[in-house]
Amino acid sequence: MPAKPIIGISAYPKTYEAATGPTLLHTASRYYVEAVERAGGIPVVLPVVDPDDVPGMLEAVDGVVMTGGGDVQPSLYGATPAPETHNVDPRRDAFDMTLLRAALDRDIPVLAICRGMQVANVALGGTLVQDVGDVSGVRHDQHKHGHEAVHRVKIEPDSHLAEALGETELDVNSIHHQAVLEAAPGSRAVAWADDGTVEAFEIEGNRHLVAVQWHPELLQDLPEQQGLFRQLISRAAELRSAGH
Fold it and tell me: How many domains does the chain have?
């Protein structure tokens, strides 16, 4: 039996109050892990290390999931922090952006989720809305409903996203307050909420990045949402069989 593809899941650094005092953990939600397992991949958590070590780290994986978390530091896209900006982690930003760019340079497939989508847009030259509610008047940070689909998105039929989901419209959860403002050069939006918020993007002519603003790992019991992880695993398997 062919070896399963190995999928790196970007870690979320978090301070834990252990019995011996505060200690930094490099964590990933079990939902990302379970979604990768269910789709046929082997999940491994990628700790936030020196960006210089990212190329070596990528030698060990066939695909990457860029996870959610705190806000991207506004200085990275030429903005001044708004009062709503919070949980900024410059070390994680540097790691995640290097991870994203290096994976794409190597044609390693990437599924970027929530913060991961925002990181991808900034890493590729785009900018962010620092608080969606201030712009559209619609709140997208519905954290209490993470496991529920709370609003509808419309999807570009001719997209890798539509291929993965098997749908051109569906309901999703919404656990974010930042979003794409100016799209990165070479990217194209492929899904939108009713208020105009960009809910997904891809890169023109590149099948190796699918970035979504919602959290499909929390909706993985829905077959269409699990399709995003199946697509990632399928493309990672192609990379492995090609001798990556």
Answer: 1
